[in-house]
Amino acid sequence: MSTGDKEEHTSARSQKYRDQYLAMDVEERKAFGMWTRAMRAIGMGLSEEEKKERQARNEYDKDVKDCTQCEKWRNELLQTSPIVRFMSQHLSKSGAPVSQSSMPCIKCEEMRSGGFAEDGTIQLCYNRLFGKGHLETTMAHEMVHAYDQANFALDWYNLDHHACTEIRAASLSGDCRWSQEVMRGNVGFLKHHQTCVKRRAVLSLLSNPSCKSKKHAEAAVNKVFQSCFTDTRPFDEIY
What we know:
The protein is mainly alpha-helical.
């Protein structure tokens, strides 16, 4: 079919659709309009460019919604969560106070719910959160790192140092509670807490530039595990 034939065919088809629409009564037009909007909402009848624009708009809307929810939960937890309030008080005593501004909700590419920067910023990954409880654990975990940096001569590129703070954070924050492990698909009863702490500490060490391999990470964790696992400061015992 030539270009001219295609244009003529398209024009004829459009005229046919217009004639059909004009032949509808008010209720039929209303129903047709609702059906058309529904189809466009799921992407039917959109050009490739329109589909890309729609996808980008939906992703932006979801980012705004998730970030707003993260900030709302964060603000509430700073006021009401026993463990977050406890850690906040001890961080203030240590000269490293935290606030809403030092805990930004950001979008993370990595599969992590949070992170701690050497400048004291606690990053909360709004696109990796399962719920408010997950955010509470994440905040507590990163606040243990903040506490360790404020109170000890912590060298993040020293694998023993990094292993120690990861062991403490995983153990003290509630990150390795049985309910948390069930959500991850890791079900166990015999020393599940210690097993979880070691596993999560090793996973964190793998991102350290000083870590050469998984065996290197495991060796560092095993080397300091006993002394760091039993050090529950600033708690009296494991939360």
